[in-house]
Structures are given as C-alpha cells and as structure tokens.
Amino acid sequence: MKKSEIEDRFERGLFASRWLMAPMYLGLIIALAMLTVIFLRELVYYAPQILTLSPEKTILVVLTLIDLTLAANLLLIVMFSGYENFVSKFDFDAGTDRPEWMGKVDFGGLKMKLIASIVAISGIHLLKRFMEIGDSSSPAADDRTLMWLTVIHLTFVVSGVLMALMDWLQSRSK
C-alpha cells in the first residue's frame, strides 16, 4: 500500500469520525424533552393557583419559566449549530419555518450565543434569589450565598465581554 493511499484512508476515517457526535446530539434532544416536562410540570402546578399567588410569587414563577425557556433555547442553538458546524448540513428545506440564524452561526457565533444565554440565565437566577429576601416561604439566602451568586454572575459577564473582545480583535487582525 502506498503512503498516499494510507493517508487517504486515514483522512477519510478521521472525517467520518464526526458522526460520533450524532449520539450526543440525540442526548441533547432527550435533555430538551426533559426541560419541556419540567416546564409543563411547573406550569400545571402554578396555573391553578393564579388567583391566590402574591405578585412577588407570580414574578418568581414567571422568572422560573423564562429561565427554563432560555435553557431550552440554548439547547436548540447548540444542537442545530453544532450539528451543522461539526457533523453535517441539514439537507431538507424547512421553508419559512427555518430560523434565520440556522446555517449562519459559526463556532465564534455559537460561543457568543452560549455565553449570552448563560449570563441571562445567571441573571434571572440571581434576581429570583434577591426577590426571595424576606419571603418566609422560601429558603433564606444568607449574605454569603448572595455575594457568591453575584460574584459568579459578574464572572460570567466579564467572561462574555472578554470573549467578545477577543473575537473583535481577531476579526480586526484579518
């Protein structure tokens, strides 16, 4: 066997190995279904209580639902963009239902959408904890916990800004 033939087979095998990612995307579909079940469970639990919920509790419930929705959106972005960037292009025509960003989000864009979603989710979680202060029915968050939640959130924000700066600098260097 010639060297070029061995190299060709190796490269074909290496290229085909991208399909090992497919089961991981299937796992993310299952995770999306799990988030949907949790969302529906929360909705079914709180919807009958709508007339007895306090405004503060209602806001906390809504923030929880938004939090779950953002996590689900994040999963969709990772699934679609990751599959198209690393495994295979979608070969079907979804027509007008196809999201505008599909097929256009590269790894850098995926990274920015990911950090933006994490910052939003972290911010909502932090807001929920701040709103629980003084609520006797919620587990009390002590000052130390709130401080660490704030530090973690700010770390996500700073990381996002630094990633955006690195992407901007990289685009300017081309």
From TrEMBL:
It is found in: Cell membrane. Its main location: membrane. One of its GO terms (cellular component) is plasma membrane. The chain crosses the membrane at residues 20-39, 59-80, 110-127, 147-169. Belongs to the UPF0114 family. HAMAP family: UPF0114. This is UPF0114 protein HYN69_16050.
